[in-house]
Amino acid sequence: MIAISNHISYVDPLIFAHFLYGNGRAVRFLGKASLFRLPIVGWVLRGAEQVPVEREIKGAAAVALPHAIAFLSAGHCLGVYPEGTLTRDQDHWPMVAKTGLARLAVMTKAPVIPCAQWGAVEILAPYSKRPKLWPRTKVTVIAGAPLDFSPWYGKEDDHDAMIEATAYAMAAITNLLVEIRGEAAPTTIFDPRQSDLPRTGNYKKRKNK
Hints:
By secondary structure, this protein is α/β, with parallel strands linked by helices. It is built from seven helices and six strands, in the order E-H-E-H-E-H-E-H-E-H-E-H-H. The chain is globular.
């Protein structure tokens, strides 16, 4: 099974893992390597046998894919953040994602469960290192119905088809987030490829240089 969710804060993996574990599934992540270097989050991820991925290295996606397939073949629940980094949307809505999740779903035909969470941004703001632990913050996580990727089976090498399948998955996450937040999602989805922001890393720090 593949569980996917939106990505807003560095504490998202801990919250998502707790949610999935509470629902009977111990999750495995292919996480960005920088998370494994964080004091508390990194310790938890390493202890839970998660796999770090150096996203900035050329060919990193090709290296990560066999690990993901191996996890699924072994019967593990694989946690995936399709955006590949914290959202760049100024209001924390999901942005245009990478196509890796769609390719994985089509190649393995594993069940894909969309999830959404809201509240973690109040605990730890994007790229902040100072958590706000008091007063206690309510975090909501919900899961939706399994997604149907069958229209794209056999099309993992068709880039346009994978873009379409990715948009389908992200729309499901966004709709769940609309339910949690009680707000309308933006009509225009933020696309980091069409902006001057770096695709990965702390763009706020870079902008301030």
